[in-house]
Input
Amino acid sequence: MSVVPADVLPGGALAVQEPAAGAAELGPRARLWPSLAAVYRAQLSRARVARIPLLFVATFQSVGIMILMRGVVDDGAEAQAVVAGSSVLVVAFVALNLLAQYFGQLRASGGLDHYATLPVPPAAVVLGAAGAYASFTVPGTVVTAVFGCVLFGLPLAHLWILMAVIPLAGAALAGLGAALGLLAPRPELATLLGQLGMSAALLLGVLPADRMPEAVRFARDLLPSTYGVEAFARTFGADPDWAFVLGDLAVCGGVGVVSLAVATWAYRRAAVR
Output
């Protein structure tokens, strides 16, 4: 019987080990936009049943505020501020308050570990969740704006501006809500911060700015939703100054980019702990 070296045989042990000696090639890293779309669809389907009742609550809350303010404010600029602030308040309730609670609970329950194991960029997780929650605000905001215009006798001609106000204000408030939820050490604190943020949007956004003290006006300028409210309120005039409207929307969009970047950083920070 002849003896043949093991490395000569095609099925020998050495022949099998030689290809495994090199490092295995990893698959391509997931790109941002496909990952964002996947997270958005998943969040939208999961939150659809649970968040729709809360959306009705946010809408009825804003409508009730306008009914109460109808007998307090005068027509004109004050009515415009009330309608615009109440409409954006729906966005604040969902994108800021509920998103802060969601990320606070996700961090406390260890749900971030699940996302950390997926081959998706951190920005896709934050943007996908923020976009899904902001999408729920569209029907409520439109209904609130139409009801407010009819209640206060304001024109409906420029309600198309909501197509810009909702995503820009939603991005700014959703980024802030996600950052609050991810940075809060406990979910109860995240809920508290979300509630305080929504209360600030209510008090500083719905009430006419002319009746506020100077210190409160300064705090109002620091609130991201203020610029969305101002942009929407300016369109109720007979001859809107579109330069100021675009300026307010640009500021709102810039704040949205910064807040989402902070939320992404907060997600990275919370995921590695």
